[in-house]
Amino acid sequence: MGDLQYGIDPKRLGEYADEIKQIHDKGVEIAIVIGGGNIFRGVAGASAGMDRVQGDYMGMLATVINGMALQGALEEKGMKTRLQTALKMESIAEPYIKRRADRHLEKGRIVIFGAGTGNPYFTTDTAAVLRGIEMNADVILKGTRVDGVYDCDPEKNPTAVKFDFISFEDVLKKGLNVMDTTAFTLSQENKLPIVVFDMNNTGNLLKICEGENIGTVVNI
């Protein structure tokens, strides 16, 4: 969204593409799961009286629109990409096939996963962790608008304390909001670490991949 009220901000899209290119040029294998809240949120639709399943499918389609936009921005900057979707729409994207996605990564292509898990009632957080596990990812990098995990909401409480490192167990004990419970539990059970960081801070993605202490690391 960038500074817009809804939709896709070309400036923000270009900034994200620049951030991704920095780590791509370093040889990092990159798979991206993208949300669709800038266009439509199934939960918001359901709260307004819409059928939840219908709303969630609409949200999945929104993620595909964002995936196509990001694909265009990345390729404009010289990167090779493939968009795979959990819902079949062969005219615009490949269906999700693990072995094919593996091959794309081996060839240095960036793989974008759209349409979440393909199932209602599951968030894109869950899709990100699920695809991360399937692709044998080293880490989930969760880009948000805050610079890590805090003991309370830093946007509401200026005295909130940030954690540099925290265990899965402590996150659950303290009732902290890292990602939805299904996604978080899946990540914990499969020992897949999560780094929560501010994606809108230029250079953060590269710093994380170079080992700097950016954001919050959630691990066993």
Observed structural traits:
single chain; about 220 residues; alpha/beta; Carbamate kinase; 2 domains; 4-stranded parallel beta sheet; 4-stranded mixed beta sheet; 8 helices; globular
Summed up:
This protein has 220 residues and is an alpha/beta fold. Helix content is 40%, strand content 16%.
Break the fold down into its secondary structure elements and pairings.
Elements: H1 10-24, E1 31-33, H2 42-47, H3 52-76, E2 81-85, E3 94-95, H4 98-106, E4 110-114, H5 124-134, E5 140-144, E6 149-150, E7 162-163, E8 165-167, H6 168-174, H7 181-189, E9 194-198, H8 204-209, E10 216-219
Helix pairs in contact: 1-3, 5-7
Describe the protein's architecture and organization.
Helix 1 (10-24) crosses helix 3 (52-76). The radius of gyration is 17 Å and the shape is globular. It has eight helices and ten strands. The chain folds into two domains: 1-123, Carbamate kinase; 138-220, Carbamate kinase (3-Layer(aba) Sandwich). With 220 residues, it is of the alpha/beta class.
